UniProtKB/TrEMBL annotation:
Keywords: ATP-binding, Kinase, Nucleotide-binding, Serine/threonine-protein kinase, Transferase. InterPro entries: Anti-sigma-factor_SerPK, HATPase_C_sf, HATPase_dom. Residues 25-138 form the Histidine kinase/HSP90-like ATPase domain. CDD domains: HATPase_RsbW-like. This is ATP-binding protein. It comes from Streptomyces venezuelae. PANTHER family: ANTI-SIGMA-F FACTOR RSBW, ANTI-SIGMA-F FACTOR RSBW-RELATED. One of its GO terms (molecular function) is protein serine/threonine kinase activity. It comes from the Bacteria.
Amino acid sequence: MTYTIDRNPCEESPRLGAMTLHPVAESVPRARRWFRKFIAPYNPACSIHDCVLMISELVTNAVVHGRSDEPWVVRVEWFRESGSLRVKVHNPGLPENVRLRHPDAGDAHGRGLLLVDSVADSWHAGPSRFGGTVVSFRMAEAWPS
């Protein structure tokens, strides 16, 4: 496992941190722990608990739905964008497979993006700069002026 942290965010370098995870179930709690640890020094005003919940959902989706014939990883990055916090989760899956579902009450799966949609101020899915898919969410007013 690897991680990087940018200790001095600024307009030219808004990334606050990143982690690279193996596509295994154990990476989900690891992502939660690392995010909590590495976002804490920046003291955001948004709910860290909500962010950790959404990261859990997106990393789980990345591990379950990522596909590649080659060895691959899940990448998680977090950025300061003006006063907002943006979190991105990358995997080698197909961007067109990411969709908001509306499962029946008895369905065991399919609620992850519904949760992200209800908690985040906005979210987006599309092609990743690493190839594959990126799903991101934004928490507005994480650092009020």
